[in-house]
Amino acid sequence: MLRRVLMLVLIVCFLFPFTSGCYYWSAKKEMGKADATLAELKAKGGATKTPYEYCSAESFLQISKTEFSRNYYQQAKQFAITSQSASQAGLTEAQKK
Questions:
Q1: Angle, nearest 10°, between helix axes 51-69 and 2-43?
Q2: Where exactly are the structural domains of the chain?
Q3: Considering only CA atoms, which of 96, 95, 83 is closest in space to residue 36?
Q4: If you ran DSSP here, which 8-state letter would residue 70 be given?
Q5: Is-contact 43 87, C-beta < 8 A?
Q6: pLDDT digits over 22-43, tens only?
């Protein structure tokens, strides 16, 4: 019985670092997408054409980077997704103008 419990604890301890890294990579990927979309918005003149969306996207990306540096990967991913959404809205509006 003790051997089974010990084996289970060892397996959990061994697998935990591999599963905790999933948020790291997905957050990093979303931050890269958000950064690229924000750069595209900036290139299309988003700062002057759609200032609200541009400032929102920039602020959310900065918060995402801050959360990432604090090792809060899930929150960083969510803020990056929100930043990307704001950038997409800004791109849509900028193309209309």
A1: 150
A2: 22-96
A3: 83
A4: T
A5: no
A6: 789 999 999 999 999 999 999 9
